[in-house]
Amino acid sequence: MSEEITRLVERMTETWNAGDSAAYAGLFTEDADYITFFGLHLRGRKAIEETHRALFETSVKLAEGGPAPLVRPLTDDVALVIAGGSSSVAGVPDPSRESVVTLTALRTPEGWRFASFQNSRVRKP
After folding, report:
1. What does the domain layout of the chain look like in residue ranges?
2. What is the mean pLDDT of residues 79-88?
């Protein structure tokens, strides 16, 4: 379970950086809840794809690598996932863009998909 979900998290970065909004949205369930760092609540795979299509035309890219996500199984078919991340704009890393992301991974007939996503900026003291 953990390896499959870790790979799903890696695919988020890969599809984001490739600018592939359909593949990115395909990592989520049809009825996923997706909450951005500024509080926008997207409902469903279609909304995730449409919103990210425009975003992917910008120069925002996700940092690759980094620590492995924490995967905490809740049942055989559901897991809590906590991952860290950061991004750059026009190739310039920006520490103020560091985030912690909380996801719910769900085993579906399509394989593991994310049913929820919550992105929060990391606050430095």
Report:
1. 2-121
2. 90
